[in-house]
Amino acid sequence: MNIILIGYRGSGKTSIGKLLAGQLWKTFADVDVVCCQRFGIAAIADIWRQHGEPAWRAMEVQVASELCAKDDHVIALGGGTLMQPGARQAVEQAHAIRIYLRCEPEELHRRIAGDTQSAQARPNLTSLGGGIDEIRHVLDQREPTYRAVADHVFDVTHLSIEDAARYLIEKCL
Description:
CATH superfamily: P-loop containing nucleotide triphosphate hydrolases
Shape: globular
CATH topology: Rossmann fold
Largest sheet: 5 strands, parallel
Radius of gyration: 15 Å
Number of domains: 1
Distance between the termini: 11 Å
CATH class: Alpha Beta
Number of strands: 5
């Protein structure tokens, strides 16, 4: 059985996912990382500039579908992966526990702003420029889908990576 982590950029999908995978003896896979590897380009922003967002989204669907078909993985979805119908279908049909790592917009903004690599590697998602207004706007669009697909909603706003992993194992797995 897989564990699929859902959430906005900065919610901890990758960090928590790696820790969970190690503690549960599962393989960790990050949809964003695998997509970047397939393009041979390290930064999502560069992929969007060179190939366009539609090419990124198509790759995201392909990679999510492939990973969801595997077993014994902890899979960190990209923040927008579930918004692609093919990826959503693959996630919903996967033999998995789906967990939405919910986080308050202000904390997401703090985490994203504190990650210097994120600003360079990831594109803004709207004309709002990537700040708190963009986070709120995009979350308003995505959160209903995150919640609809998730088996569990887990608030990580005030948790360390270690505490989040421990609580997830105790409460959801």
